[in-house]
Amino acid sequence: MNATQQWTDRDGWILMSLFLVNCEDGASLTALIDAADATNHAIPTAGELSHALTRLNNAGVICVADQRFKISSNYMGELEMVKSKKVGLFSWLEKCKK
User: Fold this and answer.
1) Quick one: which of 35, 41, 70, 92 is 20 to 30 A from 79 by CA?
2) Do residues 18 and 96 make contact, with C-beta atoms less than 8 angstroms apart?
3) Strand-by-strand arrangement of the 68-71 sheet
């Protein structure tokens, strides 16, 4: 990720949600929305999703193919390391944002 990029909490929320449902062939939009709702008890708006997914895709953090979203292998290790630390959900969200 570009170190000067200003990531928002919503970007971190969407990335964290995608990480939770990420699988080998990627995650559907429905699965991503379900995970976002489960983690934050809120359904992301179309604007929030569009903004976050566009920024994450443009930065190379995720890729989109066949209407599925997948985290780039370049970032999976970092996210797995963040998840392995014993922190609360919102601390994890903050770390995803970073």
Assistant:
1) 41
2) no
3) 27-28, 68-71, 62-65
